[in-house]
Structures are given as structure tokens and as C-alpha cells.
Amino acid sequence: LDVTMDTWDFSTCLVSLWLHRVYIYSVIAFGISIWVTVQFFTTKKKGENSNWDPASSEGIQDKLVNGYATLQAKEVYVAGVKIFYGSQTGTAKRFAKGLAEAVLSLNLPVEVISLGDCDPDDCLMEETTSRNICVFLVATYTDGQPTESAAWFCKWLEETANDFRFGKTYLKGLRYAVFGLGNSVYVDHYNTVGRNIDRWLWMLGARRIMTRAEGDCNVAQSKHGSVEADFEAWKAKFLGRLQVLCRGEKKACSGKCKKGKCKSPGKQSKEGSDHEHGASEYENAEAEELFETSSEEEPDAEEAAGTNSVIDVEDLGNIVNHMKKAKKSSIERVMLKNFVYPLICFGYQLLEVKIDGLIYFLFSGYKLIGSHSGVKLCRWTKSMLRGRGGCYKHTFYGIESHRCMEATPSLACANKCVFCWRHHTNPVGTEWRWKMDQPEVILQEAIENHQNMIKQFKGVSGVKADRLEEAMIAKHCALSLVGEPIMYPEINRFVKLLHQHGISSFLVTNAQFPDEIRNLEPVTQLYVSVDASTKESLKRIDRPLFKDFWPRFLDSLKALSEKQQRTVYRLTLVKAWNVDELKDYADLISLGKPDFIEVKGVTYCGESSASNLTMANVPWHEEVVRFVQELADLVPDYEIACEHEHSNCLLMAHKKFKIDGEWHTWIDYDRFQELVREHERSGGSKAFTAADYTARTPHWALFGSRERGFDPLDVRYQRKSKVRDISGC
């Protein structure tokens, strides 16, 4: 009897464990994530407290010659000085003018620019190759916020620094110095703006020529008795540093000091090497105390710790130990990104709780809405506000890019595509597991957040006033920000709400939810991503989570053929991955019978442990054109209609949209809103088709036109220094 009871208890225990396995998995995942996180920060703290001189161990290893590692400095010359200021009361502006006069006395060209008149996307990129020195004199205003004139500059810089698509070398070549103005009475926000600008520039690869300085309006705490005296002390140091750089004698500071703080000359001589800043007469103990910097990030392997450092063979043991620690830290960072974050996402999904804090961390620059939605300002919106042209949807379909809201009601996705521009930091899943927010709340907050982002362009240099006013009322919504919008259980209600607000709907799906496609209410334009044409290549490129991904994919295309409104295939070409499957693509086109086919070269989104794509996988525009021409020969019902060279994108359209010899790929948005209202009033009985709301395509948008898809009403902006395309549209 006892044995039977023991067996029964054991079986009951096993059943109970199985029934509660979800909670057990969550606890285990949470415990592992906490352990790895603690290990990561513990190691980081130890690394900060070590006595290692912050030089690149890899660089040292590469330069070992006969037991010594010599770090050579590159010559540096100065073409001029540009002084940027952000001022509320006029103090920073007055300092800028005073500094300009002092620089002129050195026979150097100088320019004083208000941050309110500066377009950061232009002016900062120009300075990466100009050999100028950029000085930022910035005041901290109420609650640690930038002054009104500097607000847009700071917002742009923050978003760019935290957007992985720009990379750590985006501003490489720009040399700068920062002087912040603040009041230490407000201890929680003291010189916040200066510290942030310093850090963000450094994160983007710009190089300090000297550590950041901070002027204090609180005379009781000011190092020199007033903010003016603090500035004068820093100005003397800056001018001395400038003279040194003009002679090419010293290498510019890269901010790799211990906790961003320069060592004193005494310590330098004791270690037998000159620090990056140079053991000059301008560097003394007082300067060290005043001119602290806040950067505590790890040093770049590319940067050296000194200009003429010599390391003896006897010290190589310490070097090797540091290299091992650096390697361990690197491994833990990889674990944190690729193991801990997904585990935390998994735990959040299982527990059906809000993921605002987590996703905010992962999606820098996004405006998160509730538990599972988001909105972000597209770079083409910014471009069209400045009169620099719209996105390919403007060229192909006539949307007004400055009035387009890019959003999603579902951050989660059922694929892990190799070219995902989010690098798989968003949640994944094959079914809805999150606490669901109501569509009314999502739309209201999406519009409010979008308008708030638009408002920040007020007063920004180059922004057209009429377009800024128009942009406050969204007219289009691209449900393609990230994730799989059609997974949202209330997607039909959400789309109807968009239409009730007079907003057109462009919905993108990854062809893994055929039933949802069939049940979808009319949208302005429905996209299906066709990233490959065979089962093997689709598995390799999209890496779908569904085991039956191929039948789902084919059924989704069949469901698309049943829709009466405008439908689009979206092909993303990845060189060496899916550009040789022309016949298979033609077969898929016959299956889904889309109205339009967009063919776009893949956008390289930077290095990622989640993908091995490189710039070599990005096709040239001529290669995309050749692919489309060959594909058009295989599908007789379609022709090439439009081109947007700037996006490396072409549009094939069904011949039914060529009316009396003229293409009608554009959309009559007012007519669509009338049709969809009639459809809803009739309870769905009054149908309408894509042909009912077409509009003629202008000549400049057509394939073969001289403009190659660029609206002649705008002015195309060409960067002076060519950088890689980082478009996310």
C-alpha cells in the first residue's frame, strides 16, 4: 500500500510539473537572464576599476617588433573652426562670438552657427572630411532639456546614436570639443545637454580633441568663481590645444581616458608615456579636475592609448590578461544580446504582461504604444518636409510622404529574415500571446506620437512651412514598421478606424497567415512579401517559425488572388541568395495574380550576429533593372511601369492599369475613402475593385523618364561625402 501511494504521489507530482511547465520555464529563463546580466555588469565594473592603460590590445599585438609595441601618431592639420551654440539667454552665443575672435587671432577661418539654423544630417556629415574643428557651446535649460534652438539637433543626434543602422563610424573624421553651460544648483540636471552631446558624438565615431568642460552659473560651486571665468579658463586651454593640432604635433583626444578623465602629467611621466592629450603646459591638476568627461564606454580597438607608447616585453603578461578579459566581456555581450533578451521576451510573452520597458530598450527611436504597438518617423517623411523628395510610394502610388505615418499594431513577427532591419530584436511567435490593447487606443496614441514627432521640426533649417502644416494631419498609414500587423486580432477594426479618420492603409504581410488575409477587410493596398520563390530559398532567407511555412506561403498567395482591392508582391533581391529564380518567381506571380510587383534591392543594415549579409549582397540598381526586365519577359500580362532610382526599386504593373496607352498606378485617395464608406454602410454587400480608384501616373514617375522617379517639384540632395545607404523604407 505504501509503495502504491508513493508511486501515485510521484505520478501526481510529474503531472503537476507538466501542467505548470510554462511557469517553470519562465522562472528558469528569468533566473538565467538575471545571472548573465549580473555577470556582465560585474565584469564591466572590474574592467573599469583595473589599472590597464586604455590602449587597444589588438593594435598593440599587431605592432610588436622585437619585443616592443610602438604606436605611431598620424599627422593632424586644421582647416578652420566651426562654433555651434545653443543658447536661451544669450550667454552661449556671447561665448561663441568671443571664442571666434580669439580663433581669428590665430589666422584660422572661423564660423559661428546657431544649432537652430543647423541641419545636423548635412552639417555634421560635411565635417567628417572638412578637417575643421567643431566646437559645441550648449546650455542646459529647464529640467535638463536643451534650449529651444538646440532641441531638434539633440533629438536627431540621440536617435542617430542609438540607431544601429548608422553604425559606430558614421561621424568618423569629425573632430570636436564641448563646453557645457549649466547650474549645479539643479544637481539632477547639471550640464545634461553638454554631457549628452559629448557622448552621442563619441558613440557615432567622432573624436574629441580635448575633454569636455563644464561652466557653472552657481558662483558658490564654480571652479573659477563664475561661468564666465570657467569659460575663459577652458578657452585658454582650447586655443593652446588648437595651436598644437595646427602644427600636427599631437594626436587628437579620442576620449579613451579612464572613465573619460585625463591623467595628470605626473602620472604620465611615471608611466613613461605621453597621454593622447599631450603633456603640455595647458594640462595641470586644476584642468584635470574641471574638464571631466562623462564617457565611460569601452575604448575602440582602433584607437591607441598614446602617441609614442613603448611597451616592454615584461609587461606583455598584463596585456594578455587584458585581452582575455576583453574577449570574455565580448562573449558576454553576445550572450546578452542573443540569449538574454530573447529569454526575457519569451518570459514576457508567456506571462502576457506589458513589454513597454523592454521594447523601449530594444527599439531606440520608436514611440511605443501600449503592450505591442509602435510608431516611428520615416526618414522619407523628414526628407519630404525639407523638399528633398519622397519615397518610392510617392513615385509609384502618389502618397504624400510627409503625411505618412509608419506604424504597426504588432511588433511580433513569425519570420526571422536575414535582411531584417531590426536585427531580430523584436519578439517572435506564431500566435498572439500578448495582452491586447484596443484599436481605438492604439490609433489615438499613434496619431498623437506622430504629431509630436512632426512638431519637433518646427523651426528646423530647410523645413517647408506649408508641408509642416500639412504633415500635422496624417493622410496615409504604412503598416510596415516592423513585425506582422495582420497577427493583431483586431486588425479589421484598426483598419476601419484608419479609414474613418480619412487615412489610407498600406498593409504588409509576410505570407504566413492565409486565413487572416482572407478575413481582412478592404485596405487601400495589400502587400505580400515574396522574398524567395522556392521552399529551400524561402527557408534560408526568411527563416520562418512555422513548420508548414511553405503550404502557408502558397495558400497566402492564393488568398491574395481572391482580394478585389489593390494587391502587391514585394520582392527583395539579395545577391547570391535569390536573384537566379526567375522562372519560379513567374510561377508564383501566376498563382497570386497581384496587381503590382515591387522589386527592390536589399538594404544593408549593418553587421549582425543574426545574419551574415554584407554589402556584397546588395545589388546595383542596374542589376535590379536587368532582373526586372528578364522577369517581365516571363510574365506577358505585366510591364515595367515606374522606377525610383534613389530607393533602388522598380514597379511592374498589370496591363489592365495601362488605360489608353497611359499608366494609372497612382491612387485616387478621396475616391477610395468614398468607396470604403459605401462598402461599410452596405454591410459589405457593395463591393469595389482596384480599378475603381486609380489615377494617372505622372511622366516623371515612369520607367525610362529623365527624372528616374524623382519628383521635379523637389530638389535632390547629394551628399558631399558618399556614405552607405541606410534607408529603412
Automatic annotation (TrEMBL):
Q: Which family does it belong to?
A: Belongs to the TYW1 family.
Could you state one GO biological process linked to this protein?
A: wybutosine biosynthetic process
Catalysis performed (reactions):
N(1)-methylguanosine(37) in tRNA(Phe) + pyruvate + S-adenosyl-L-methionine = 4-demethylwyosine(37) in tRNA(Phe) + 5'-deoxyadenosine + L-methionine + CO2 + H2O
Q: Its function?
A: Probable component of the wybutosine biosynthesis pathway. Wybutosine is a hyper modified guanosine with a tricyclic base found at the 3'-position adjacent to the anticodon of eukaryotic phenylalanine tRNA. Catalyzes the condensation of N-methylguanine with 2 carbon atoms from pyruvate to form the tricyclic 4-demethylwyosine, an intermediate in wybutosine biosynthesis.
Which metal ions or organic cofactors does this protein require, according to UniProt? [4Fe-4S] cluster
Q: Locate the region Disordered.
A: 254-307
Enzyme Commission no: 4.1.3.44
Q: What is the lineage of its organism?
A: Eukaryota, Metazoa, Chordata, Craniata, Vertebrata
Its protein name is S-adenosyl-L-methionine-dependent tRNA 4-demethylwyosine synthase TYW1
Q: Which UniProt keywords apply?
A: 4Fe-4S, Iron, Iron-sulfur, Lyase, Membrane, Metal-binding, Nucleotide-binding, S-adenosyl-L-methionine, Transmembrane, Transmembrane helix, tRNA processing
Molecular function GO labels: 4 iron, 4 sulfur cluster binding; FMN binding; metal ion binding; tRNA-4-demethylwyosine synthase activity
- According to the record, the segments passing through the membrane are 22-41
Gene3D superfamilies associated with the record? 3.40.50.360, Aldolase class I (3.20.20.70)
The biased composition feature labelled Basic and acidic residues covers 268-280
